[in-house]
Structure formats: C-alpha cells, structure tokens
Amino acid sequence: MRELSVVVTCTERKISPVTPSLQVHTLPDVAIDQRVAIWNERLAQASGQTSLSNLYKGEQWAQSRALTGAAARAGWTPKLWVASAGLGLQPVSEQAPPYGATFSSGHVDSVASTNADRRIWWDHLQRRRGAANLRELGEQGPVLLVLSESYSRILQAELRELGRLGGDVLLLGGDREVPGIHRVPSNRALRHALGGTLTSLNARMAISWVGHCSPGGPLTAPDTVAAWGKWAAESEKQETYDRRPMTDEEVRAFILTAVRANPNCSKTKLLRLLREEGMACEQKRFATLYVETMGDG
C-alpha cells in the first residue's frame, strides 16, 4: 500500500488547561525571531508532554483522526501530520505540552497581528521546530491537505513549492487556488449530507472524498474527481437559519459554561459556537454581554 501524507490544522481544544507561560500572549513584545526563540525554550522546558495524537480534542480532531481510517480503507498507508502555529509541521507522534497559539486574527493568542508577520513567525518556527515542510512530504508521495482559510494563507509559500512538484495533491478547504494542487473549496451546503459542525466540515469532506477513490488509485484520479463532484452536486442543500432568540441571562450562562470548558476561546469563536447550536444573538449585543460577564473585551 502506498503511503499518504495527511496534513490537518491543529485545534484550539486541548486535553488539559494551558499554563500562562505557554500562551502566546504572554511572550514579550520583541522581534518575531526572538519571540519564536523564547517560545521554543518554553516548550522544551514544559512538563506534561504528550503525543499530538492525544493532545487535541473536540469534533474537528475526532474527524481528522477518522480521516486516516478512511484513507486506510481506501488502500493507503496514511501518516497524519499537524500544521500548528505553536509547533510547526509535525507528525502526530511528536510530543508537546498543551499550548495556546493560533493564526486566527482577533484571538488573544494569535502569533502576530498581520498575515505578513504570521508568515514570518511560521518561517522561523519551521526552521527551529518543524519536522518537515510540505514539499518534502510531496517528494515522498501523495498528499492530502485539510486546511482552514487562515492556515492556508500562512502556508502559501510551502503550498506553492508543493504544487511545483506536479504530484498527486488534494487540498480540501484553503483560501485560494494553488497551481499544481487540486483544490476542493469548503462547501457549507454539504453539511446537511455530512453532518457535524462547520469546524469539522473540511475533514468530513475529505473523508467523503477518499471514500470515492478507487483502491490503490491516485488521490486525484479523473474518475474520482468526477464521481465526487457528481455526489456533491446531488447532495448540496443550502442551509436556512431558524435560530432561537436568547435572553440576556441565557447568553451569560452560555458564555460562562463555554469559557470554563475552553478558557482560551475568543469572543468571536464563542459567538460562532452559539450560532452553530441554533441560537440567535446579535453581534453587538453579544459583545456587550461578554464584557459584562467576563469583565473585559
């Protein structure tokens, strides 16, 4: 069976709380290369190291792991890799402590305030910690990428290098087309058919894709592209929102419960989670209630 490199993004949810020293927002305000060096030292000295396979939790991670099982059933020997704003590109066998780092904008633990600086952070992090880059994975065989928009923007240079190889590469999600890579944009109209929340949609699409592959055949074989495209077209169902309004007390209770479960969750992420559960709250009102509940913005 051929080896397949499966690359997914890390998740915000970890198996245990993150200590302050391993939250990016506690780094000193110095040059990015210095911040990365300090971050690397903190990671190396931290206790509570565990494999990445066991470090993350939540629906998105569960579906990422399920994807490797689907790939194995489709005739590959999958190896799961994680693209992490805190660790670089790592196999899931790598050891790390719980940490708080992201490329998402507006998050307290975003590694930088602009995409340009986030790319600089990634470059320095990869040089210090990365176990491989995307081109190296492509040189070993087919690559299946499941990337959010924010991570795809930061990994653009590596994606272009991977595309230049002209190999068998599939990207689920991402933020733009990349020459040499077959991309399937995230399609929320498939959520009705695939189930789950929007955070796991790209991984669920990838599971569906490999289920359409011929055993031992290329990941992006024309027959597979056609078969999955036909299935997707027949399965699309545009979502309509019929969210239930909430009282101020219900919104405050939701915020407290969600923050206790995930202390690093941003205000924007909290509102998205609330809406994904079928609840309604206008953004400005939610922000006001958040400040009243948590005591800051």
TrEMBL record:
Organism superkingdom: Bacteria
Protein name in the entry: Uncharacterized protein
